[in-house]
Write a structure and sequence with these properties.
2 copies of one chain form a homodimer.
Chain A (H helix, E strand, L loop, with lengths): L7 E7 L1 H5 L6 H12 L2 E8 L3 H12 L4 E5 L10 H9 L3 E3 L1 H13 L6 H5 L2 E3 L3 E3 L8 E4 L2 E4 L3 H11 L10 E7 L3 H14 L4 E8 L4 E9 L2 H20 L2
Parallel strand pairs in A: 1-2, 1-3, 3-8
Antiparallel strand pairs in A: 4-5, 6-7, 7-8, 9-11, 10-11
């Protein structure tokens, strides 16, 4: 028997546009996929507006509760980009123009022959003591302070920053999963499936209805941290479906 | 001068599959669009797992803070559908097989010649005192208790339930918005745009970078509850972009 290491995480997506419907978030699903792959359990997501109070409250609630907290959005150069201020306040430290980030951005704009405006300088702001999360797409770095990782909202940049960040994080035992497709709706399989779940307490069995406009079918997803445990539950789910088929 | 009515809301999306990445949520964006249209301000979204404690905590945190709380997911017939139990516990009331819902479902399965299994009976469960949110897609109702509206996770069903529910809710003064497209990145417009925001404090001006793989442009979204206020800010944003264009 092996001991699984459980590492937990939360995500905080920041932006009025996500709450007005103007922008449909793409970062939550991507983060979920990536964390599942490396063995970090995403336990909670919150979306809040560009509102300092709301961001501070959420950061403080989540950073105490989970091993890792990932944020997206609000680190650009405009007045509504207030994530660096809010995260600084959450940690009770000053928000400064980070010298290394200033040098990085200054050199980039000089190379491109563009003015290093006050607005662009805003992108170098981060809490005292933060370290960079590199941004190969558009240079302006994200940052990490303690267990909080602050990244951009633009999906291409969020994804690039996450790729830079992930290899440096503590990860756990990845969750293995398999999907058994059931031609029967949840109402037909619900009773026997609950029995299978009871028999395999070390797995988590989820049941996801699919609706094609006329009838329901079900995807049964089994998750476990050990291959043998997963295989035993899978066999019982398949046997359960065969039993239902024979009874029709 | 008119007085705007502000009505606030939160959403709680429930389901392991949203946090593992298996399912990419489609209900948050749809709810955001619909609420914006009718004049309800969506202020916060949370996603939690199929975990009773997590659901209870989130429901209680949100229902005290916002006028309306919309939930999605966890009301099907299987063992991992525990939203009715959790919401009942959040309100400190018993979770029962609602007699009206039992009659509705019983009749439907009889009509279809299908067995009304124990699993299917689970879909009639709701807190004592809850009223139905009708489900024209697949019959099994959602429910409302106080300011909490419990709906299905399957997008077609969530949308149908929301359509049933919305006309009965208290709504506010809708937010009007317009978008001005800027060919310049946020770094070029950030300074002057902050000035425009300062000059128009009754508007909320958001700036959304777009990245085509090579260069950034910006969508500037202005939001206000009065048409004249919106138009005045829009004119200043357009003038600002013209000034930048002339300076090049």
């Amino acid at each position: 028997m092996t001991t699984a290491t459980i590492v937990t995480a939360a995500m905080l997506a920041i932006g009025d546009e996500l709450l007005s419907g103007r922008t449909k978030d793409k970062n939550i699903g991507h983060l979920a996929d990536m964390l599942t792959m490396v063995g970090i359990d995403l336990r909670e997501v919150r979306i809040v507006a560009d509102d300092e109070e709301a961001i501070v409250d959420a950061v403080n609630a989540l950073r105490g509760r989970y091993d890792h907290v990932f944020t997206s959005g609000g680190i650009g150069p405009t007045h509504d980009d207030i994530t660096a201020d809010a995260v600084s306040r959450a940690f009770g430290v000053e928000c400064i123009h980070d010298p290394e980030a200033m040098a990085l951005l200054g050199a980039m704009y000089e190379r491109r022959g563009m003015e290093f405006t006050d607005a662009r300088r805003r992108m170098a702001r981060m809490p005292v003591g933060a370290t960079h999360i590199s941004n190969p797409v558009s240079t302006a770095p994200g940052f990490r302070i303690a267990n909080v990782y602050v990244m951009a909202g633009v999906p291409q940049v969020f994804q690039a920053m996450l790729d830079s960040l992930l290899p440096s994080l503590q990860t756990g035992t990845p969750v293995l999963s398999c999907t058994v497709r059931s031609p029967y709706g949840e109402g037909d399989i619900g009773g026997p499936l609950a029995e299978v779940q009871k028999k395999h307490p070390e797995t988590s069995i989820g049941s996801y209805p699919k609706f094609d406009g006329k009838t329901f079918s079900t995807d049964i997803v089994i998750r476990a941290r050990e291959a043998a445990v997963l295989a035993a539950a899978e066999a019982d789910v398949v046997a359960m479906i065969e039993t239902i088929a024979r009874s029709r």
